[in-house]
Amino acid sequence: xxxxxxxxxxxxxxxxxxxxxxxxxxxxxxxxxxxxxxxxxxxxxxxxxxxxxxxxxxxxxxxxxxxxxxxxxxxxxxxxxxxxxxxxxxxxxxxxxxxxxxxxxxxxxxxxxxxxxxxxxxxxxxxxxxxxxxxxxxxxxxxxxxxxxxxxxxxxxxxxxxxxxxxxxxxxxxxxxxxxxxxxxxxxxxxxxxxxxxxxxxxxxxxxxxxxxxxxxxxxxxxxxxxxxxxxxxxxxxxxxxxxxxxxxxxxxxxx
Length: 256
Prior knowledge:
Layout: E1 3-7, H1 16-28, E2 34-38, H2 41-50, E3 57-58, E4 61-62, H3 66-90, E5 95-100, E6 106-110, H4 113-116, E7 119-125, H5 127-135, E8 139-148, E9 156-159, H6 161-172, E10 176-180, E11 187-188, E12 191-192, E13 195-197, H7 198-206, H8 212-226, E14 232-235, E15 247-250
Parallel strand pairs: 1-2, 1-10, 2-8, 5-8, 6-8, 7-9, 10-14, 13-15
Antiparallel strand pairs: 3-4, 6-7, 8-9, 11-12, 14-15
């Protein structure tokens, strides 16, 4: 059972993360494997502020200038990726740090250049490269900075980590896409909703109930389901080892 797990920036600082991932990776070796995709939005924002820039989001996606692309590379493909890989290797995990630019792991095109700038939407995934690493017993740890295959904006585009994880899950035919955040799941009135159909997700998006980072997660979840991923969940670190935790998105027409 191949799993794609996306870890947001804040959960990466939780001491429980590495031990949980180590247990999951060991269990998955020889049984489909795991791909880990990470974010690091707070680190990017801090670097932008340090360099005298500003931070702006539209529907949970970071507006990115040409200058910002270099900062995103530094924060995500540089420090965040290598720090996470280092802590995983210390726990005995054969982790390999990559970005979407390496071997055109993720080829992207501009999402909305006028509104978002250098932000991309995944178009292609180098599945053979990923499978080669996984077959060798390695854990790919992927920064979502991707190669601009459109040739319109330049060499790299800032791809939202949830979008990158969804594209990888679709390309691998993953049994599950797990989007790990700093909340237990999608909530209504402070209570986690255990299941959400595609129709229910669209309703949350249409009426503005889902906003910011959760909006991006739900949109990525819909993309994964549409691409054939069997199961999508949104939850916290504990959900890595607990298959019943969090909010499951499903393709049934029922509004729940």
